[in-house]
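HUMAN: Mind sharing a backbone?

ASSISTANT:
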Amino acid sequence: MPLYIYLPDSDRFGVDRAATTDRAEASSWPTVRWIVCQEANSGPARTGECQLSDLPAANRIVAVVPTGRIAFIDATLPKVSPQKREQLLNFAIEDKLTIDPSTVHAVVIGESASGPHQYVVAAIDRAWLSAALAWLQSAGIKPQLVVAETALQNVADDEWLIVLKQRDGYAVRPDGLAYGIDYNRADLNTPPFALTLALNEAAASTGSRILPSRLQICASADIAAAIDQAGWQNSLSTGSVTGLVLSVAAWPQPMSPNVAERKLSASNLLTGAFKTVSEVTAGLRQFRFAALLACSALALHVTMLSLDAWRMSRERQTLETELRSIFLASFPQATVVVNAPLQMARNLRQLENERGLTAEPVVTQLALAASITRDVAKQISNISAKNGVLTLSFTNLSADHLSALRIAAARSGAASVAESGGDVSLVIRAMGNT
């Protein structure tokens, strides 16, 4: 059940003191008109006028800005992202403003029907909007949307909506651009000059693409009855606006909002510095310090890891350089160095083989076996070598020979004697497998 609060067209806002002061003092502060729209045709809209403290409760609040506080501009903007377009907005409309652009809050309402790269821009005094929002907030009112009064009605294609209020009015195009209309209520025999001027400008536009074929005029019953429809029709159907059809309807004031939610949200003035902060975002802001501390610790950790990786890389490069230098000093005949440690090991093995400094493991084991079994060589019945282990089997060993074999094997440090079912074996393992 949305509540529409019509902001007063006033230069003076203050805290609503109706609940804390007498009625005489409270009456000096602005009152607001309001409308509560019922859900899905469940009943007619309720309306009234009161102090902020007396507004009815609602689950959604829309603040409505009077037309006189907003300047609508048909501006040329490049086809860029919405974020970048917002940054260029004040520069694009600077030549169409009579005040300092820095004091203006501008919002792109949507694409204009005037032509390509044209956008409808709503410009409002930043200080006035800030004061109005602060006034609402002083009473605990936080609107979800702030829109122009002209955005509350849906306008059909090829039609302009003309709304005449008690003292002034406005005309709205289908693309959302609006014109303020001042008129003399005592003379409604001819159309207001501002309306005639707006229609003539539309007729003079490129291809007259924004010129309507129908005007829907809405006003209170007494104003609608005073309009000379024939006189307006005759005046507006001359020159460049021939064929214009007028329709006058008596509507209550203020008119009940009648527009799609999506289109209303597109007209929201709460952008940029005025953008509302959700409760979730507000809660997260309370943990900003903790988040900053955690990010700082993470950044420090990543920095230390990077420094350590850099140090290890430098040390590795230094070692590789030293190995390369040693390799080249040891083997000056080498012309290409790809892997210094591997090349050095290969060259060393080659030198050992050339000088007879290396032997196969089994040869070494056989030499050791020969020295251990010198006295019992005749009793060797079998010799086998497998997986680096040399095994010699004996038969008919006497106790003295067995004892001597044990002692010799123990002294070698690489051999051992094993007995199994009367069989004696000498086991010699290769060096490194002991």
The radius of gyration is 49 Å. Confidence is low (pLDDT under 50) at residues 16-27. The CA atoms of residues 370 and 377 lie 8 Å apart. The longest helix spans residues 288-330.
